[in-house]
Write a structure and sequence with these properties.
rod-shaped
Length: 84
């Protein structure tokens, strides 16, 4: 069985899986399959929310850094004026 032929006959594919030692208990019921899909979707949403929170935090940090650099440059500018 190759990647090209594995979708031609699901029955033959399942039969081969059993021949090489797959346990029949490994097959998920429809309820188990749907529950797994729900869990996958839930985890995707959580990851996306985390990414959004991280992006917001980085935005705040970047703004704070810009203010700090501006004030540092301003301080440097005035210290040069005082030294002349």
């Amino acid at each position: 069985m190759t990647s090209d032929t594995r979708r031609q006959c699901n029955c033959c594919r399942l039969a081969k899986c059993f021949r090489v030692g797959m346990d029949r208990k490994s097959i998920r019921s429809e309820d188990q399959r749907l529950e797994r899909l729900r869990l996958i979707e839930y985890n995707r949403r959580k990851r996306e929310e985390k990414r959004n929170e991280d992006a917001k935090a980085l935005t705040i940090i970047n703004k704070q850094l810009m203010v700090f650099l501006f004030l540092f440059d301003l301080n440097l500018y005035f210290s040069r004026l005082d030294s002349t």
